[in-house]
Amino acid sequence: MKKAIMMLVLLAAPFALQAQTKFHDVELNEANGPVKSITQSGMMGRGEQVVNFTQDGKMQAEGLSGLVYDENGYLQKAERSIETPQGNMKITTTYKWENGKVKSQSMDFGQGAMTQVYKYNDKGAPASMSMDMMGNAMETPYTDYKYDDHGNWISRKASMMGQEMEQKRTITYYE
Question: How far is Cα 42 from Cα 173, in angstroms, rounded to an integer?
Fold first, then answer.
């Protein structure tokens, strides 16, 4: 009997370890499937941003560190260093998930904080994002989505502070 139980444990161990290695960073970046990279442009005058993903779904981006995941592979906390005219700034972001989607993210950037709360459309893409930045609240609706063959958005319009802008991104996939 002990041998049978031991055999079951040994057979189950690889599956338990395999389940723990799936990360959900692709979903965090509003995409699904075997995404290799997302290159995004068109947001508030910032240059191109590239996020790469390992085959198990873990993101890799410049300045990203201190990643903390829960037991299911959902990112709970991350730190990012970015260069500003005033020097290097560290941003700590905490994520809350609901039904496989980011419900909210809170960012602490030293001299202030910001919280973003998301609502999703029927395709699973954000319909709007509410932002509270140090007591100043605003809503950003997302419209006019265009999707690629994998069902991920590659273009959308955002309305922010009375200005409409188009966000575009290019997504590459693992085969």
Answer: 21
